[in-house]
Amino acid sequence: YKAVDTTGFFDEIAVDLGNNFDLLKAVVDPIKAAQRIGKPGIFVNLSHRSQKEAQILTSFCRRLYDYAFVAKYYYQKEQKTIQLTLQSSPQVQQFFNGEWLEWYALMQVLEFAQKNSKNLSCARNLSLSFPNEDKHELDVFFTLAGDKAVCIECKTGEFRPSIEKYATLKKRLGLSNASFVICVLGLPDEQASGLSSMYELTFVNERGLAEHLTRFA
After folding, report:
1. What three-state secondary structure class fits 17?
2. Which residues of 157-169 are buried (b: 16+ CB within 10 A; e: fewer)?
C-alpha cells in the first residue's frame, strides 16, 4: 500500500517533472549526477534563461525545498543561481534516480480513471512469482472492471537490453500489445512508433502516456 500512498509529495513532484521535463531536467540531471559521486549539493544557473523559464525553475526548486526533497535552498539574485543542498534520504535518492517516472505513470492512470469514471485496481512495484519460481517486479499494473489488465514499465535510461525480457513477460502474462506499455523518458514520437511496430509491445514517451491510456476508456 505504501507504493501507492499519495498522501506524501512524491506524486506532486513527479507530475511536475513529467509535465515539463524538458526544462526541469536542468535541476534533476545535476541532482542525479551529484548523488552518484556523493556530492553534497548543486548549482542551477539561470543567467541564460528567459524570465519565464527562470521563474518556473525557481518555483520548482522552492517546492523541492518546501517538500523536503532537498535539505537547503538558496537563491543568489545577483549571480542568478540557485544553490541546493541535497538530501541523503534513500527514498529521495531513489525518486530522483528514476522512481519519479513510476509515480508519474501511476498518477496518469488515476487521472484517466477519474476522467472516464473507471473503477480500477492498481499497484506500483508489484512483485510476482511464476510457478517455475521466476520473479519479476512490475512498475505500474492496473486492472479495469476486473478483467482488462495493463502493465506500464518505466525507463529513464537505457531500455534496449530489456526489450526481449519485456516481450517474453508480456506473453507469460497473456497481455495484448497495447496492454504492455514501455514508457521511455524523452523517447521521440517517431522512434516510439517505429519500435511499437517492430516489437509486440507499445512504446511511448512521458508525453504520450495519457493519450495511450484513452484506448482503454
Report:
1. helix
2. eebeeeeeebeeb
Residue 10, classified by CB atoms within 10 Å of its CB into exposed (0-12), middle (13-18) or buried (19+), is: buried
Q: For residue 121, count CB atoms less than 10 angstroms from its CB and return exposed for 0-12, middle for 13-18, buried for 19 or more.
A: exposed
First to last CA, the chain: 25
Angle of CA points 119, 152, 121, to nearest 5°: 20
φ/ψ (deg, to 5) at 136: -140, 155
Q: What tens digit of pLDDT does each residue of 65-95 get? A: 999 999 999 999 999 999 999 999 999 999 9
Q: What is the per-residue pLDDT across 109-145, written as a single tens digit (0 to 9) for each? A: 999 999 998 888 999 999 999 999 889 999 999 998 7
The yes-or-no verdict on residue 39 having pLDDT over 90 is yes
Label residue 146 by pLDDT band (50, 70, 90).
low
**Beta pairing class for 41-45 and 81-86:** antiparallel
- pTM for the structure as a whole: 0.94
DSSP secondary structure letters along 24-48: HHHHHHHHHHHHHHT--EEEEE-TT
Residue ranges in 9-162 assigned as alpha helix (H): 10-19, 21-37, 51-66, 90-94, 100-115
Q: How far apart are CA 58 and CA 81, in angstroms?
A: 9
Say how far apart CA 114 and CA 1 lie, in whole Å. Answer: 20
d(C-alpha 123, C-alpha 21), whole Å = 24
